[in-house]
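Backbone-to-sequence.
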């Protein structure tokens, strides 16, 4: 019933992953491992290839660095996907795609996942937002890509965009495609999955993030469908201005040069009509310089 599609950095999937899957899934399944040990594929092309090789009516695109802790989670996924107009379901997401390149948690972060440091330096954390949420699903717009499930028939309308490259932001793009096609995306709260990762938001990540936001610029902002028009008016400007300032700091830290940062900030400041940020442009290159210095000092002190 479920096609499990994995883009693997190795020629074989980890034994622990396979054992965990087999013991817990509770439905008929196939594993389609796209061997990317020689880096032949982007994750966009690997996932599309996996879809073409799959045969079951339900698809699960998942990272190989996870363990499953819920028995019969396959049945749970299939039940959720029976709800009319359901697009993609995952473990983490948020309610807004603003016009400024931002993370999925820009508004109302929604999450149910056990996060474990792959290096074993930090204690595992069971993230669950909103706190005390007591329903099995919550509607969102964006989704995090560690675990994405959907019906096979959805691929008649959407695909992973192979004009984008690398291994980042495929999740943002496919989630927006689903919403744009008239579906609703959901985070599920009745499945426990452990993810062994500390993330890698490097310069390549941010370049892909900017490309995805440019691609969808004419359709943004995009809010979760239950948010009222009045709420949208109140929320949008402060969130976009805040995320533009965060973007400055992040681009400094991942190696964008001063001219690139200035051009991007100038573009988005005018796009969102932020007079406050436009005025700030005259001091921006100095701000970038001091941000780099403080980042350097902080990193040095961490060693």
């Amino acid at each position: 019933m479920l096609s499990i599609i994995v883009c693997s950095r190795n020629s074989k999937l980890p034994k622990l992953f396979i054992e965990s899957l087999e013991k817990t899934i509770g439905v008929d399944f196939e594993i389609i491992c796209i061997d990317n040990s020689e880096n032949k594929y982007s994750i966009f092309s690997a996932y599309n290839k996996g879809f073409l090789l799959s045969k079951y009516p339900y698809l699960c695109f998942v990272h190989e660095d996870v363990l499953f802790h819920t028995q019969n989670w396959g049945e749970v996924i299939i039940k959720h996907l029976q709800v009319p107009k359901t697009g993609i379901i995952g473990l983490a997401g948020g309610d807004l795609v603003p016009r400024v390149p931002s993370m999925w948690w820009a508004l109302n972060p929604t999450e149910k996942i056990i996060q474990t440091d792959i290096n074993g330096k930090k204690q595992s954390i069971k993230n669950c937002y909103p706190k005390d949420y007591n329903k099995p699903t919550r509607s969102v717009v964006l989704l995090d890509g560690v675990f994405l499930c959907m019906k096979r028939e959805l691929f008649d309308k959407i695909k992973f965009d192979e004009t984008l490259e690398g291994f980042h932001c495929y999740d943002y793009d496919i989630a927006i495609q689903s919403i744009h096609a008239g579906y609703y995306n959901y985070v599920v709260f009745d499945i426990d999955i452990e993810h062994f990762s500390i993330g890698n938001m490097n310069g390549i990540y941010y370049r892909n993030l900017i490309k995805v936001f440019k691609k969808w610029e004419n359709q943004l902002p995009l809010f979760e469908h239950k948010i009222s028009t009045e709420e949208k008016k109140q929320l949008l400007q402060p969130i976009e201005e805040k995320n533009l300032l965060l973007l400055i700091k992040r681009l400094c830290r991942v190696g964008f040069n001063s001219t690139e940062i200035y051009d991007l900030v100038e573009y988005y400041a005018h796009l969102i009509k932020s007079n406050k940020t436009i005025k700030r442009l005259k001091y921006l290159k100095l701000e970038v310089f001091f941000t780099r210095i403080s980042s350097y000092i902080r990193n040095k002190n961490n060693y």
